[in-house]
């Protein structure tokens, strides 16, 4: 009897999975996290650029060499020396292309430069990384929302 | 009275005329002196630099390529590096004495490798340094017609030892005369009278400067008088420091081909491969010693003379107490320590230079480029450039050996770019890459053959509800009217292959399947995809487009493939990184720009198909682990009658495209595989790219499918292949014949976990 019950449970579970796999293809163009689900934090980030910048600049690189360059880039960014900040970010990018901290800064810098489409593209590219945290993912999504 | 008046009038009149004449002469000389000293002398041609290599902890790097670059920079391999420009390599440890460049100080550093990655960088005290920078290689300049080249120094940049040495040797009384020193002239005059010819000059530094402004070495009385007048005028207009600085920047030191090396800044670069601030006293002494006879004491042509002259200068320094006895003894026994003449002289890499020039023309005029002393930091990687040049040259030799002298005129082009940021790393525009002339990388517009197919297939895969990698295509006989003529394409093997999965048609490069696919998806969709990929040409509406009659230059073709290799993110290719002025401030930059043009999932599917080209298609031959670690993919292309041989392929972070063919468009015996792919292979083998990072697309899953019918299969079934699908688009049917070897769950190992994650995370990612 126990075995029968277990079999039914497994059967139902597998059917759920099977249904999930048989659904029609989803729209894959949208990479954004449904930001509305992330309460007031996201709303604040979207609405308040200074707050967003603070949060971005708090994200450290995984590699100390890259972090050293990011410190200098952040400095230039806050002084609004955008071209120089970009040069520094590109230096870091040549060391690693797998760091969410970099894509966040590139997206933010382009946003500040008024290059919104590029900002969005950098955010989308950052979202392809497999090693970013949920918080970095959420922050990247803010640029898609913006 | 009348007579007296006439004489007085005559004398007066003559005096006025003479005075006017003298004033005119002085005015002309004054104009010439000030014009030159205020203007022309301070103009410097723009210089082109390779990208400076930065070494950082965590950087993936091929150690052999680093050593090649050090050799190109004239770094010397020694057991114990103790002076700038030396290194020692022991297995995984590189000890290097950097010369210093910009903010990078000179000093000894330890670089520790672990496999192909830098693990640690530390300075002499063992303290971690994170980052160090090698100096770039000068790859050319925008020289004016007279080909004067100089590195302009400002007063704070001039080392004291250079000033001391110049004054001690050339003009000890410099700060006490007014441009002309009677004492020196009388001493030289007496000597010359004794010798019966002009043997010695009594020229002060000011006079020497005046002399160089008149571009003549002729020693006539008239010239001497003019020089004396010019010297007095120079002293009248300028301070002693300004005069000395002009002299330091203007003295002629050497001729390098057509290029004239002026000034000590350029002299330091030319002979020692470094900036003046890094020169040791003996090196300064050598350069100053050359003033007496730039040709006679040229250290490369006459090293003995140059050494003797240097030691004489050191002796003068010793006598004037600028160096002590032990230092003198030590310095005079030193080698000259010159850098190799290569890579620091003439303009190199003409095809790359051409791209740079085209880019610059958009923002700078010729005058600015020839005079403002701009430092143009390009993206060229000199090791890759040399390797690409060698590969095209050597492959041509191999092909001539194989196919005979009919390939003597074979031409070609190749471009290597960084996939992600679009930096152009190397370009060749000919099979004789060092010769200037027709640059085929941008000017050879040729049919791209099967290189067009991935673009067509991507157009289809982007319609992911209609096409996936196992969609069945029809490769049976096709006959249709095009432009009033019957069009009947055939395959390279002259066979028809019936119904085949899309990915097989791609890596087997079947023409008819591709033509049918193109016709199905339509010209409009194809044109739109071409535009998204970065092709700016309009697409002709005839079916041969789908099998490769479309014409592009190698540069245009690689731009389109960059978007594919970069997962659908279009980035304009860039040959220049940034441009700095003489103070080192940023004048102009060419920032990394991206735009997502195609969704990454369809591109991932296409890249899978292109990887099969390496595993089982026309680029087969590499071991599987190598292909996977490089994330390699590619496509061969051969145009009608084998007039064009193409290959485009990505490996690691590099995307490389090669074209071979004849300029007069006659047929070759080459296919994409036997021609262009051989260049690609020789190049990639010589540089051995490091493995690339992989992105994981959560909406892609792998499913075992059959290579013939494209339906579900299993790992244990024959003829099966693990194929990626956008979730929800994978085949659902398992044919009865494979029921026993395939099960529904014989998919990618993480299939169930993926589904669970999907249920719980719904939509994220």
Explain the overall architecture.
- The complex is a heterodimer of chains A (146) and B (765).
- Chain A is built from eight helices and no strands.
- In chain A, helix 4 packs antiparallel against helix 5 (82-95).
- Chain A starts with a helix and ends with a helix.
- The longest helix of chain A has 21 residues, at 2-22.
- Residues 11-35 of chain A have low confidence and may be disordered.
- By secondary structure, chain A is mainly alpha-helical.
- Chain B is of the alpha+beta class.
- Chain B has four domains: 47-138, 2-Layer Sandwich (Penicillin-binding protein 1b fold), CATH 3.30.2060; 141-332, Biosynthetic peptidoglycan transglycosylase-like (Penicillin binding protein transpeptidase fold), CATH 1.10.3810.10; 389-687, DD-peptidase/beta-lactamase superfamily (Beta-lactamase, 3-Layer(aba) Sandwich), CATH 3.40.710; 700-761, no CATH class.
- In chain B, the strands form ten sheets. Chain B has a five-stranded mixed sheet. Chain B has a five-stranded mixed sheet with strand order 3-4-5-6-7, covered by helices on one side.
- In chain B, helix 1 crosses helix 6, helix 3 runs parallel beside helix 9 and helix 7 (240-250) runs parallel beside helix 8.
- Chain B starts with a helix and ends with a helix.
- At the A-B interface, helix 1, helix 4, helix 5 and helix 7 of A face strand 25 and helix 24 of B.
């Amino acid at each position: 009897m126990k075995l029968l019950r277990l079999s039914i449970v497994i059967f139902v579970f597998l059917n759920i999975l099977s249904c999930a796999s048989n659904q029609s293809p989803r729209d894959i163009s949208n990479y954004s996290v449904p930001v509305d689900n992330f309460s007031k934090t996201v709303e604040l980030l979207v609405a308040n650029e200074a707050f967003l910048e603070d949060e971005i600049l708090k994200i450290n690189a995984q590699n100390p060499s890259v972090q050293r360059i990011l410190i200098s880039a952040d400095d230039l960014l806050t002084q609004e020396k955008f071209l120089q900040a970009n040069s520094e970010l590109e230096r870091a990018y040549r060391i690693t292309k797998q760091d969410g901290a970099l894509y966040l800064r590139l997206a933010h810098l382009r946003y500040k430069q008024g290059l919104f489409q590029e900002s969005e593209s950098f955010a989308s590219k950052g979202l392809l990384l497999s090693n970013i945290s949920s918080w970095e993912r959420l922050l990247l999504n803010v640029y898609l929302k913006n | 009275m009348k007579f007296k008046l006439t004489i007085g009038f005559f004398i007066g009149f003559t005096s006025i005329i003479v005075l006017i004449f003298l004033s005119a002469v002085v005015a002309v000389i004054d104009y010439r002196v000030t014009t030159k000293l205020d203007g022309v002398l301070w103009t410097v041609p723009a210089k082109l630099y390779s990208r400076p290599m930065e070494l950082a902890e965590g950087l993936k790097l091929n150690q052999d390529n680093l050593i090649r670059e050090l050799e190109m920079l004239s770094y010397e391999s020694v057991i114990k590096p103790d002076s700038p420009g030396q290194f020692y390599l022991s297995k995984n440890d590189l000890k290097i004495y950097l010369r210093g460049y910009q903010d990078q100080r000179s000093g000894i550093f330890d670089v520790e490798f672990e496999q192909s990655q830098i693990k640690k960088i530390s300075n002499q005290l063992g303290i971690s340094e994170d980052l160090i920078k090698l100096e770039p290689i000068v790859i050319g300049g925008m020289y004016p017609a007279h080909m004067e080249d100089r590195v302009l120094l400002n007063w704070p940049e001039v080392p004291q030892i250079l000033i001391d040495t110049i004054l001690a040797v050339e003009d000890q009384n410099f700060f006490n005369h007014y441009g002309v020193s009677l004492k020196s002239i009388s001493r030289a005059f007496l000597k010359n009278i004794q010798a019966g010819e002009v043997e010695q000059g009594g020229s002060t530094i000011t006079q020497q400067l005046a002399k160089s402004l008149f571009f003549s070495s002729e020693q006539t009385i008239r010239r001497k008088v003019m020089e004396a007048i010019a010297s007095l005028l120079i002293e009248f207009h300028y301070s002693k420091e300004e005069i000395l600085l002009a002299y330091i920047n203007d003295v002629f030191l050497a001729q390098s081909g057509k290029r004239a090396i002026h000034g000590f800044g350029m002299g330091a670069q030319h002979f020692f491969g470094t900036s003046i601030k890094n020169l040791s006293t003996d090196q300064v002494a050598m350069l100053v010693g050359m003033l007496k006879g730039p040709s006679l004491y040229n250290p490369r042509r006459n090293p003995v003379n140059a050494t003797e002259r240097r030691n004489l200068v050191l002796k003068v320094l010793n006598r004037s107490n600028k160096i002590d006895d032990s230092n003198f003894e030590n310095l005079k026994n030193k080698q000259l320590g010159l850098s190799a003449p290569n890579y620091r002289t003439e303009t190199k890499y003409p095809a790359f230079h051409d791209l740079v020039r085209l880019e610059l023309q958009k923002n700078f005029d010729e005058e600015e480029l020839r005079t403002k002393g701009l430092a143009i930091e390009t993206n060229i990687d000199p090791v890759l450039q040399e390797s690409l040049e060698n590969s095209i040259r050597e492959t041509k030799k191999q092909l001539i050996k194989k196919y005979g002298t009919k390939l003597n005129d074979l031409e070609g082009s190749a471009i290597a770019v960084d996939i992600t940021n679009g930096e152009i790393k190397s370009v060749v525009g000919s099979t004789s890459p060092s010769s200037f002339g027709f640059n085929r990388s941008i000017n050879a517009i040729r049919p791209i053959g099967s290189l067009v197919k991935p673009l067509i297939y991507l157009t289809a895969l982007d319609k992911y509800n209609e096409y996936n990698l196992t969609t069945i295509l029809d490769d049976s006989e096709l006959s249709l009217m095009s432009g009033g003529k019957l069009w009947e394409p055939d395959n390279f093997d002259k066979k028809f292959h019936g119904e085949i999965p899309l990915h097989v048609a791609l890596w087997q490069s079947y023409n008819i399947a591709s033509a049918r696919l193109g016709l199905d998806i339509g010209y409009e969709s194809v044109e739109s995809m071409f535009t998204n990929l970065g092709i700016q040409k309009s697409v002709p509406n005839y079916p041969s487009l789908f099998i490769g009659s479309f014409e592009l230059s190698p540069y245009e073709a690689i731009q389109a493939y960059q978007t594919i290799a970069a997962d659908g993110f279009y980035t304009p290719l860039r040959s220049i990184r940034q441009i700095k002025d003489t103070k080192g401030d940023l004048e102009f930059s060419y920032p990394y720009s991206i735009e997502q043009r195609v969704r990454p999932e369809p591109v991932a599917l296409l890249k899978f198909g292109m990887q099969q080209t390496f595993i089982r298609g026309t680029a087969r031959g590499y071991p599987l682990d190598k292909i996977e670690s490089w994330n390699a993919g590619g496509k061969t292309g051969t145009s009608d009658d084998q007039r064009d041989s193409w290959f485009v392929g990505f490996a690691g972070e590099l995307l490389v495209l090669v074209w071979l063919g004849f300029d007069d468009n006659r047929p070759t015996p080459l296919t994409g595989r036997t021609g262009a792919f051989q260049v690609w292979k020789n190049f990639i083998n010589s540089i051995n790219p490091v493995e690339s990072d992989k992105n994981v697309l959560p909406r892609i899953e792998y499913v075992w499918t059959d290579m013939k019918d494209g339906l579900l299969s299993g790992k244990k079934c024959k003829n099966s292949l693990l194929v990626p699908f956008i979730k929800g688009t994978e085949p659902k049917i398992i044919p009865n014949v494979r029921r026993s070897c395939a099960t529904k769950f014989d998919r990618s190992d993480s299939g169930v976990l993926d589904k669970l994650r999907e249920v719980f995370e719904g939509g994220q990612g």
